[in-house]
Amino acid sequence: MGEVVENGGAEIAEKPVMVAVDESECSHCALMWVIDNLKESITTKSPLLIFMAQPPPASSITFAAPLGAARMYCPPTPEFANNMQENHRKLTVALLERAKDICASHGVTAKTVTEIGDAKTAICAAVLKYNVNLLVLGERGLGKIKRAILGSVSNYCVQNAKCPVLVVKKPQVV
Fold first, then answer.
1. What does the alpha-carbon distance between residue 53 and residue 119 come to, in Å, rounded to a whole number?
2. 31 CB-near residues (< 8 Å, 6+ apart)
3. Which one of 9, 118, 131, 170 has the lowest number of neighbouring Cβ atoms within 10 Å?
4. Are 94 and 56 in contact (CB under 8 A)?
5. For helices 153-160 and 119-129, what crossing angle results, to 10°?
6. Phi, psi values for residue 153, rounded to 5°
7. Closest to 25 measured CA to CA, from 173, 171, 174
8. Nearest to 127 by CA among 116, 118, 119, 135
9. Residue 117: which residues within 8 A CB-CB, separation 6 or more?
10. Separation CA 98–CA 102 (nearest Å)
11. pLDDT tens for residues 45-85?
């Protein structure tokens, strides 16, 4: 299920630091924090592990409708589901390559990994799979109500990851 995008599927030698990224600005802040603060501890024997979860295949699709109108639920055709998965994979690979290029421009050795599944459970599973020493995440900055309704990936990982977790907040502009 896991896909090591770089390194040809070779195992990671030592306990790496892993940063989980997505398309948000907060995950970019987390990546930059790792580069700025942990650069000396990241080596070719213990590279930075950049992780991104791909969404699982859709089992049904809901088409939005105005309030009061009926909503339509449709199971996707196999071709549509495959196209969606391929598009998610391409986006994931592009974002991981961008993160790896940022690391390379700062002289940091990085490996990229992706898993298919819900972000919070995929991150915690990757921590175990790759024997991660430190997990770094960006905080999305949801309010208390949104966090209670939507759930928080960083909060889930703080509670369930089997390693120390560092949640990086977006710097405040004063």
1. 5
2. 19, 21, 50, 99, 102, 103, 138
3. 9
4. no
5. 30
6. -65, -45
7. 171
8. 135
9. 1, 53, 54, 56, 125
10. 6
11. 788 999 999 888 766 555 555 655 555 556 667 787 788 88
The tokens for 136 are: 């770094």
Here the tokens at position 145 are 């109500």
* Cβ atoms 53, 118 nearer than 8 A: yes
pLDDT in tens, 84-115: 888 888 999 999 999 999 999 999 999 999 99
Burial bucket for residue 52 (CB in 10 Å: 0-12, 13-18, 19+): buried
How far apart CA 75 and CA 59 sit, in angstroms, is 6
Amino acid identity at 51: F
Please answer whether residues 47 and 11 qualify as being in contact, where contact means their C-beta atoms are separated by less than 8 angstroms: no
Report the SS3 class of residue 81: helix
Reported pTM: 0.77
Residue 61 CA to residue 76 CA, distance in Å, equals 7
